[in-house]
Amino acid sequence: MIFLIFCVWYYYCIDTTGAVGSNVVVDANHNPHIFYYSINNQLVHTWWSNLNWQREIIAPVASYHNAGPAVIIDNQGRFHIAYYNNSERLGYAFYNGTWTIEQVDTTYRTGDYCDIEIDGNGNPSIAYHRYTGMFSGYLRFARKISGQWQIIEQATEYGGYHANLEFDNQGNAHISDCTSWSGGDLRYLTYDGENWQIEKPTLTNVGGYNSMVLDNQGRPQISFYWADGTNYDLKFTNKNSGAWQVYTVDHGLQLFKRGWDNHIAIDNNQNLHIAYHCHNEDLLKYARGIGNSWNTQIVDSIGGYDSYIGIALDDNDVFISYHNEYTAELWLASTRNLLGIEERRKSVFLSETLTKGYITIPPKGILYDVCGRLKAKNYTPHSLEYRIPNSGIYFLKMANNLHKIVVIK
């Protein structure tokens, strides 16, 4: 018998009216807060109060965007949000009992692909994209000093796509981004307040999506989506040994692309956690590991294009916010049971335990193991009986449903 260790997930529906971008953070009381763009072009805040879900509208936003709002909680428990406002410019929202709204950048079409961080002096800084054309634009970096926003543009080449921002203990800014929203170079930039240093962990074939954290030694840990025409992978890179090393987290093919909208987080033990979208397979997946050692798992069945993922950690728990394109719903998947009972979608359910190990796969059905590895696919118009060789947890994808199956042999 094979024993598989995996996370148990609990699912909470945050918004049924439509959401098109999300991020999640956890406060000092261990309660999750989800910030997102509603279908009505509003920046919305929904949070768990220990009893129920609360909701408020913060500000109007642009009618289109390419990522969700960015949010961070400072050491006083105050929220700082960067977002794409309704005039298609970079907006900033700050909560200290009431919301204060500011427009950071006055240049048209600045503020998409944004990320926010607090520096060592407690001031917010934002990395974001300035749009100049469908395949062109530049990285901008805004920082608030003495109450005023200062804006620096890094204009040696195109960049700013899916920008990520962190600060080290010396106050230097670390940014990862891509030179194109599709098929560009992955960049790692540092800025000391005067000069930029730019490195490229990998060239071309990076599909825009990337995410970065710094470990406890200030070293970059970056996840990214790789598409070279043959391989469509979720990859990971770091320079822990002094040189950039690139690893495959979840290998994909043209019909099984894996790694869209990836977001990375790091826990206190320096383990890395990545949430990402497998859009051909309509799956939300989760990976945990470091370097060349990763475990992956299916979290949910979602739509095929937009997922707008966010990830946060709290103690040993993982929180993932995401959008289901099929139902236009915003969901939170968590390894923590907030309600004391499971709130699960009807499309995700637990079947009876199978002791003989045979699974009926309907036409167009796809069978995965708990790590998201493809086990069988039915291309015929008839149902097929498939024998499972080992005990474990399996997922049967059928149209818009994800069927969870336990096999004991």
Would you kindly provide a written description of the structure presented here, covering whatever features stand out?
The chain has 409 residues and is mainly β. Helices cover 0% and strands 58% of the residues. It is built from no helices and 34 strands. The radius of gyration is 21 Å and the shape is globular.
Map the helices and strands.
Layout (H helix, E strand, L loop, with lengths): L9 E6 L3 E8 L5 E7 L3 E7 L4 E8 L9 E4 L5 E6 L5 E6 L3 E5 L6 E9 L5 E10 L2 E10 L2 E7 L6 E7 L5 E6 L5 E8 L4 E19 L5 E8 L4 E7 L6 E6 L9 E7 L5 E7 L4 E8 L2 E9 L8 E5 L2 E8 L4 E6 L13 E3 L7 E4 L4 E4 L4 E4 L6 E4 L4 E7 L2 E7 L2
Parallel strand pairs: 28-34
Antiparallel strand pairs: 1-27, 2-3, 3-4, 4-5, 6-7, 7-8, 8-9, 10-11, 11-12, 12-13, 14-15, 15-16, 16-17, 17-18, 18-19, 19-20, 21-22, 22-23, 23-24, 25-26, 26-27, 29-32, 30-31, 30-33, 33-34
Keywords:
seven-stranded antiparallel β-sheet, Immunoglobulin-like, mainly beta, 2 domains, about 0% helix, Neuraminidase, five-stranded mixed β-sheet, disordered N terminus, 34 strands
Helix content: under 10%
Strand order of the largest sheet: 14-15-16-17-18-19-20
CATH topology of the largest domain: Neuraminidase
CATH architecture heading of the largest domain: 6 Propeller
Quantity of strands, as a count: 34
Q: What's a quick, concise take on this entry?
A:
The protein has 409 residues and is an all-beta fold. The protein contains no helices and 34 strands.
